[in-house]
Amino acid sequence: MxxxxxxxxxxxxxxxxxQAAIMNALMQLIAEKEFEKITINDIAERADVNRGTVxxxxxxxxxxxxxxxxxxxxxxxxxxxxxxxxxxxxTKTPLLHTIKEIKQNAPLYKTLLSIKDVSSFRxxxxxxxxxxxxxxxxxxNLSIDDLSKSIFAQFISSAIVGVIEWWFNQxxxxxxxxxxxxxxxxxxxxxxxxxxTN
Length: 198
Description:
By secondary structure, the chain is mainly alpha-helical. It has helices at 2-32, 40-47, 51-57, 61-80, 92-104, 106-113, 121-139, 146-169, 176-189.
């Protein structure tokens, strides 16, 4: 029985190691050339595995990209939200943590944000923030209809992601702290968040 457990643990570790190598290979390749020009052979060669190993974990490169994006968003969420955090940006702190985490891994996130031809990281990030905003509004029992909530959430999430994307494209002309302060001031100025929050 113990022997079977050890074998199972070894197989699990090998699977995780292969998946990590394949994901890292795709991220490296995306930084070097357009996603559409990347082949499964390219990915397998860079990851030092065979084509069959790639296909045993992912149906195609689009499936692999989706898993990479999901993995990065999960990591981003875990890094930026504490267990007792409520909603997306009830204070500046989670927003600042998000921007700092993105800056720390700037080459990766810039690469993910640059993919235009597929369901990109930008869309996923926007969707993640949108969902958190809706949840926050539902928790605070705002007396507005569902359509208004959806429009508001889309407006805020698009603005935040758009500003982050602009920041990257301009080679990060200010610190994460200054970007957060300026973005927060704009949200306050337009009464999109409660005034005098920290």
